[in-house]
Amino acid sequence: MKYLEEIKSYWNKRAEGYSISNRESLESNDKEEYEKFLRKYIPKNKKCKTIDMGCGPGFLAILLADMGYESFAFDCTENMLAKAEENARDLGVKIHTIQGDAQNPDIEDKSFDLLVSRNVIWNLENPEKAYKEWIRILKPGGRIIILDGNHYCYLFDDKYMEERKSSTHINDHKNMMGVDTSPIDKIAYDLPLSNKIRPEWDKNILESLGVKIIDIDIDEISYKNEKNEEVKLIKSFKIIGEL
């Protein structure tokens, strides 16, 4: 992978600030909202074995552990995994951490009942391969829950750029701790999903891999264009599938 080490370096630097954001969410109403969402789609299996791919500081992995499931947290960066372990200890839950490349996970076939991932697929050089691998490690009847967004569409789409320049645009970067985003911004220009309006791409790929799409939930943003017309765009989405 051409950019793997650069991407890893960037997220290693982001670990401290991202962890603060995760802790804020875990100590807010976000926790209850995410739990409600997850319970709606988690396989009805009391022994459900789960994995959070690209776990970062452990938000989803910790939630799943707190909900009583066996929870694994997978990430390529040692600093993120260290923060995930620290956050889990502080919150009194147990997670199992694994370091590796999400596009080439060294995990046995049919190992998990549930795979979750938040804001990871956009960041990969070979997202289609990642999806193939993630499906490979799911058990028959297992489920996959992807949360992601059109983070860099503004590089290629005029409407997204207009929204970014509008007075109503909200900067989602928080607790940056002085980390410069320019390295990942430059890499994003070459990443294959930056020029795709999703989740249509994800739906097509997952279905081609034999996944039945259960639900898609879309969050929109809007802005006023030069003609004072309201324009709506897909900001983020949740897509849920089953083998």
Automatic annotation (TrEMBL):
Annotated ranges, domain Methyltransferase type: 52-146
InterPro entries tied to this protein: Methyltransf_11, SAM-dependent_MTases_sf
GO molecular function terms listed in the Swiss-Prot or TrEMBL record: methyltransferase activity
UniProt keyword annotation of Methyltransferase present: yes
Sorted UniProt keywords: Methyltransferase, Transferase
Domain of life: Bacteria
Membrane-spanning residues: none
UniProt KW Methyltransferase keyword: yes
An example Gene Ontology biological process: methylation
The protein, known as: Class I SAM-dependent methyltransferase
Source organism (scientific name): Clostridium hominis
Taxonomic path: Bacteria, Bacillati, Bacillota, Clostridia, Eubacteriales
